[in-house]
Design goal:
- The complex is a heterotrimer.
- Chain A is mainly alpha-helical.
- In chain A, a hairpin with an 8-residue loop joins strand 2 and strand 3.
- Among the domains of chain B are: 191 residues, no CATH class; 202 residues, no CATH class.
- Chain B contains 23 helices and 11 strands.
- Chain B is elongated, with a radius of gyration of 32 Å.
- The N and C termini of chain C lie far apart (48 Å).
- Chain C is globular.
- The chains are: A mainly alpha, B alpha+beta, C alpha/beta.
- Chains A and C meet through helix 6 and helix 7 of A and helix 7 and strand 10 of C.
Amino acid sequence: MREVVLALLHGDGAHGYELKQTLDGTFGDLLPALNAGQIYTTLARLTRDELVTSEPVDGDTRGKRVYRLTPTGRAVLEEWINRPVPGVRLKSEFLMKLVAVAAARLAEPGRLIEDQRHEYLQSLRDLDALLGSGRHGPTAQLLVEGSILHLRADLEWLDLVEARLVNEGRVA
Amino acid sequence: MSATLVRLAFAGIRSRLLAAVLTVVIAAAAAATLVIALEVRASGVDPWHRTFAAAHGAHVLALVPTRADAAAIAAMPGVAERDDPVPTVFTAGITIGGGSEPLELAGLDSRPTINAPVPTAGAAQPGSGIVLERSLAAARHVAVGQTIGVPTASGAVNLTVVGTAVLPSQPRYPRSNPGLGWVSRDTLRRIQPDEGRWRWTQPVRLADPAAAPAFADAAATTLPQAAQAGELTVVSWQQQRDDALMDSEPIIVVLGMFTILLLTVVFAVIAILTAARVSAQYRDIGLLKALGLTPRQVGAVFLVETAALGLVAVAAGFPVGAALAPRLAAPSAQTLVGSPTIAIQPWHALLASCVVLPVLLLSTFLAVRRTTRSSTLSALRAGSPAPATRGWLGRAVAHAGLPLPAVLGLKDVLARRRRAFWTATAVAVTGAVIVATLQMRAAIRVPAGTVSDVPSELSTLVYSLDAVLVLIAGTTLVAVMLLSVRERVRDLGVLKAIGLTPAQVTASLVSAQALLAAVAALLSLPLGTGLYLALLNATSGTVNGAVFAPWWWLALVPVAVVAAVTVTTSVPARLATQLPVVDAVRYE
Amino acid sequence: MTPVLETRALAKTYQSGGARVRALDGVGLAVERGEFVAIMGPSGCGKSTLLNLLAGFDRPSSGEVWLGGRRIDGLGEAELARLRRRRIGFVFQFFNLLPTLSVAENVELPLLRAGQPRRAARRAAGKLLDELGIAERRGAAPATLSGGQQQRVALARAMANSPDIVLADEPTGNLDSEATRGVLELLGAARRRGQTLLLVTHDARVAASADRVVRLRDGRITADGRLAPARAVPDPLDLGDGG
C-alpha cells in the first residue's frame, strides 16, 4: 500500500482527497472502498519515515495539505519499480495440514487430498461464475483469472502429492 | 551420402516387395515385347541372305512377255552373269488341298544356275510331278507324295508332289498370290501347248549388285512397249528381300503397339504406387529429421530404387524376348532356308533399357516432384487427399441427389485425383486392347477352307499378349484396390463412428470405384476401336472394308471390367468395415 | 429412473507388446439423463478406454455396457452404427476429421446422414461453426487447420445433430482459454437442452463446469462426487491476497 501511494504522489504531488479519488478510480473493485482515515494514516506514516513531505495549500481554510515525495521517497519508489515482486512463495496451508494429520494418523491422507481437490474444483466453479457474471471490470477479471490459474496449478500439485503418496507410501 | 541413399533405396524395395515385384513384372513384359520386335526385325535378314546365296539369287529378276524380251534384258550393260529364261504359265482351276485355285507354274528341265529353287523336302527336280513352293504346301496342307489336280488342254491330270522348295524371290503364300510350283517343260507344254501364251522370267546377276535398282529402272527404257502395256515386271534383290521380310511387318507393328501400351500401364502403376509411398513416407517427419535428409535427397532415393527395378526388369525381359522371338519370326522363315538365327544382339538389351528406363524414371520423378520443394511442410501436405469441393465435378456430385454413401465415395475418389486418373488410364488401356482384339478376331474370321492372309502366328501373338496384359492389368487392379482400401481404413472407421453401417461404408467405397471403372471401360470402346483401325492401317495400308465385331461382344468389356473392380474392391472393403472402430482409427 | 448410460463390472484387457495391460478393472458407472459428467485421472488410467466402450467402438473383455436401457456390448457393427446414428455424438482426442471433405462438409455429415435436406444441413453447420469461432475456415481442407481449429470442427461434427449423448475425449486439449470458454458455452447450452454429456478431460476448468466429477486410477473409479452450484465469493476482493 505504501509504495502504491508513493507512485501516485509522483510528479506534482496531490491532496489527500485527490489521492483517495485516484485510488478508487484506478483500482476500482480490486480494493475495498477505502475511507479517508486509512489514507491519512498511510500518509502520516510516510511523512514520519521521511519519504513524503506536506505543506499547506495557499488560501485553504480547512487544513488541506499537498503531499510530495522527498528525494528519499523517490529513491524508495525507484527501487520498488525496479525490483520484481518475489516469486518464491513457500507457503502451503494444505501441506502442513496433510503432514500433521498423516503423522498423527488422524485421518486417511487420500481422503484429505480428495476433499481438498473437491474444494479446489468447487472454487474454480465459483470463480468461473464470477467471471461470467460480468459485474467486474477488466482489472478484477485479471485477478480472478490469476486465481483460477493458481487453482489449476494446485490441482496438478495435488495429483503429484497423491502419486508420491502411492509410490512412496508417505508424504512425510 | 550416396551410399546411404543407395542403402535406403534397397530397404525401400524390400519393405514394399509386392509393389516392387509388380513393377518389375510389367516393365519386364514391356522390355520383352520390345526385344521381340527388335529381334524379329533382325532375325529375318540373315536367313534371307543365306537363302539368296544358296539359290545363287538374281540381282535383278525380270518377268517379260516374250523370249526376245528376255534376251534383251540379258543383253543390257552391267550384266555379269545370265541364265536361260524360265517359262511360266498362270493356270487357274488347280485342285489343291481340298480347294481350287490358280497357281503360277514354272517349267524347269534342269537346275538353273541363277535363282535356283532351294529344295526343302523331297526331290529338287519335278520330273513328271511337281515341286511346290514351301509356304504354299504348308498353307494348303499338302505333303510330299500327295497329288494335285491340274487342268490341261486334254483334261485334268494328277501331278504327284515330289518335293518342296524355297526361292528368295518368292514371298510367303497366301500374301503373295498366286502360289508357285515347278514342273518339267513337257508338263508345262501339256498344260499350255501354245508357247506364245508363255511368259518368261529372266534372271541376271550384275557386276555391281548395289546398282540393281538403277538397272531395274533402266529395263523399262529397254523394253518400252512391254513397259507401257504393263507386261514388264522388274524386281531388284533389295526389293525381293523387303518383300520376303514384309511378313514380319504386322508382327512388328503389333509388338510395337503392345510395348507402348505396356509402358503406359507401367507408367500408371508406378505413378499410383510411388505417389502412395511418397505420401506415406512424408508423414513420418521423424524419419526425415533423424536421417537428416532433405526432401530432394529422399526423391533421389526413389529414383535410385526405380532405376534398380528397371535394370532388373530389362535383365529379365531380354532373355524372355530373345527366346520367344524365333517362334514369332516363323512366318518369314517359311520362305527361307534354315531356322531363323537367334540373333541375340546385346545391343538390343541396351535399346530396350533406353526405352523402358526413361519411362519408369519419368513416372517416378513426376510422383516425387513435390519433394523438391524446399518446405517440408508443403511436402508433407502434398500427397494428402484434398477435398474436391471447389471443382465443378465436386459440385456436380453434391447436387446430383445421390444417396449419401455414393456421394461420400465419389468425393473420396475425386479427392485423390491423380490416383483416379492413373487407375482409369490403366483400366482404359487394358479395355482398349481387349476391344481391339475382339475387333481383330471378328476381322480375321475366314470362311472354312480358304487360307487367311494373316499369318496364324499373328493371332496367336495377339491373344497371348492380350492374356499377358489382362493378367498384368488384373493384378495391378487388385493391388491398387487393396492399396486404396488399406489407406482408407481410418476414414472408414470414422464413418462408422458417425453412424454409417458397415454395409453403407462398403457401398460408398465400391460404388465409387465401380463408377470410375465403368467410365474408363466405356472410354476404352472408342479407344480400342481406334487402335484396331490404326493397326489395320499399319499392316494393310488402308482402313477400307474394316470388319467390326458385333456390339454385344463389345458390351461385355465394360460389364466384365465393372464386375472385376466390384469384386476386387468389395472383398477387402468388407474386411475393413468389420474392424471395431477403435482399431480402425488407430491405422496410419 | 433408468440411467441413460450404465456400465456393470466393466473390464478391458489389452495385449500390448507381449504384456497384458488391464485398462479397466471392474468399473460400474451410472449416468442419468441430462447429467454433465467429467472423467479425470492420470494418463493410462483407462479414461479413453471407458469412453470407447460406452460408444461401442470396442468390445469389453467382460462386464456389461447399457445404453438407454439396452445392452450394447454384444451387438454387431451394423447395429452399433445405427444406435450411434441416433443417440451418440463422439469427439475423438485426435479429431479424426475426414480429409476428403471440407470443414463444412465434415460438420454437415451427421445431418445429411439423418436425412436432412442439404440447405438446412448447411445452415445448421454454419451456425455451429460460427458459435465456435471458425466460420471463416468452412471451405478449407481439415489438414490445413491448426490443432485447436480441428478440435472445434470435431466438436461441431459431434454436436451437429443434437444427439442425446455427447461423448468427448479431451475436447479442449488444444485450445486457449478464449476458445475453451466458447466450447464450455456450447456444452452448457447442450446441457440445458437436456443432452447428456460425458467428457474425458485433464483441464480442471472444464471439469469444474461439470455437475459430477469421476476420477479413475489404474482402471478403477477412485472418486465420484457432485459439485455444488457456484457459491458467492467474498466481494469486494482483497488486494492483499497473495497477489
